[in-house]
Write a structure and sequence with these properties.
Elements (H helix, E strand, L loop, with lengths): L20 H6 L3 H9 L1 H8 L7 H16 L10 H11 L5 H13 L7 E3 L1 H8 L6 E4 L2 E5 L5 E6 L4 H5 L6 E5 L2 E2 L5 H8 L6 E8 L2 E8 L1 E4 L3 E9 L2 E8 L6 H14 L4 E5 L8 H11 L4 E7 L2 E7 L11 E5 L6 H11 L4 E4 L7 E7 L5 E10 L31 H10 L6
């Protein structure tokens, strides 16, 4: 749940956060959450023997209530959540603010969910101030946790410093400048990756059991979300290639512009390249899916009560018939997986490549009264056929050809892709 500045995932280009912007925007409305948090005042009086509730007790109760109302797993990982509230109020030392923060962290840790976390005021402020900029500075990595809660690279930003230095999707980062990352949050690791533009940072990575150090120079770079071209592959056949690198505010509109232009040129098929696209703004995935299919479910969002939202195509497609190939890899995550799942389950596209990352949880940020906040996992994505994307990913229909080094042989830029497609047009038609 998501960095491009080396801060943390989603789109950690512009701030420290561990969830995708699509996760942030699709989560429970904050107005409702604030009302719910406010309700703890009445509860607190009954929950505490004290004559008056202290500010720190109130803060603890706000954090508890945020999870109680919205958390996706109503078993709370087997924890008696109500009893935990009572125990925290009666037994924990909430005399000072830092101790209260530690008690809140300990409470959230019982959920065993690395994405449900407490944010101190300065970190929450950093998150809320972030914007989706095209021109960014950093190392260009989106991070997450693997099953063992180790720091893992979801994907390096295409064209970013980390990608150029050789960092790859699924690399495990076990140290930054020699400091181990074990038991650290994504925020802590992200802060270690930050530094002045032009400075260097050493990432110690484990790739398939082989460890190495990769030196990355922090620098400013530009994210171009959409590029496209027409590939003339002979025999009067044309392939329309669209590279979608990220989901930001303009990705949906730019992709539709590209599809319109390619359709006007009479292409025989589209290739939508989602490799190393780690997600971003969820509405972009919906907009592109609607441009490519006229009817059918795009995605379900399920919370602890079951299906909460269903998103459907609305018969506004630009082209629902021309053959479509999607290219994916293990760096394809979140909103990209939503799009791939929608097109696959509705028989609109053939998926080529390798199983995607499997990042399907949705978080929301709940602000607390002292300027801090809690990030709470509130829901999960499910494909139209009901597949839970998280930790599973989207399984492709066919693999892509590999080169002699065992890596994907299909180029990920427009000119080189066209040259390759001319040698194997049937793969994309």
């Amino acid at each position: 749940v998501v960095s491009r500045t080396g801060r943390a995932p989603v789109d950690a280009r512009d701030g420290a956060a561990w969830r995708d912007d699509d996760e942030r925007r699709e989560a429970m409305p904050r107005v409702a959450m604030r009302a719910a948090v406010g309700a703890v005042v009445a509860m607190a009086v009954a929950a505490s023997d004290a004559e008056a509730i202290t500010e720190n007790q109130m803060l603890y109760l706000e954090a508890w209530r945020a999870v109680d109302k919205a958390y996706v797993d109503k078993t709370f990982n087997g924890v008696n959540w109500f009893k935990l509230r009572e125990t925290g109020l009666k037994n924990d030392d909430l005399d000072d603010r830092e101790t209260t923060y530690e008690v809140i962290r300990a409470m959230l840790a019982k959920l065993d969910d690395p994405f449900t976390r407490f944010l101190e005021p300065e970190k929450y402020s950093s998150v809320t101030e972030q914007t989706m900029k095209a021109d960014v500075s950093g190392v260009g990595i989106e991070m997450g946790f693997d099953d063992d809660k180790k720091i893992i690279v979801v994907a390096p930003t295409p064209g970013g410093p980390a990608s150029e230095a050789g960092v790859k999707a699924k690399d495990l980062i076990y140290a930054v400048d020699g400091a181990p990352t074990v038991d650290k949050s994504l925020y802590e690791v992200a802060e270690e990756l930050q530094g002045p533009q032009g400075s260097k940072v050493t990432l110690s990575v484990d790739r398939g059991g082989k460890q190495s150090d990769i030196v990355v120079q922090r620098k400013r770079y530009t994210v171009v979300p959409v590029t496209s071209t027409t590939c003339d592959v002979g025999e009067n056949k044309k392939i329309g290639y669209v590279k979608l690198s990220a989901f930001n505010q303009v990705s949906g509109a730019k992709t539709k512009e590209a599809l319109k232009a390619l359709k006007a040129e009479g292409v025989n098929s589209y290739v939508l390249d989602l490799r190393n696209n780690v997600g971003g703004l969820f509405p972009g995935a919906l907009e592109i899916a609607k441009a490519l299919m006229n009817e059918g479910t795009i995605v379900y969002i399920a919370d602890s009560s079951g299906e909460r939202d269903v998103f459907e195509a609305d018969r506004s497609a630009l082209d629902a018939d021309t053959p479509l190939r999607l290219l994916v890899n293990k760096g394809t995550a979140s909103a990209s997986e939503v799009l791939a799942g929608a097109l696959r389950d509705n028989n609109r596209a053939t998926i080529l490549g390798e199983t995607t990352f499997g990042k399907g949880l949705i978080q929301t940020l709940v602000p607390l009264s002292d300027g801090s906040a809690v990030s709470v996992t509130v829901a999960q994505y499910r494909t139209p056929l009901g597949t839970n994307i998280n930790k599973v990913g989207i399984v492709p229909d066919k693999p892509l050809p590999l080169n002699d080094a065992g890596e994907d042989a299909v180029p990920a830029n427009a000119d080189d892709f066209c040259a390759y497609a001319r040698t194997a047009p049937d793969l994309f038609l």
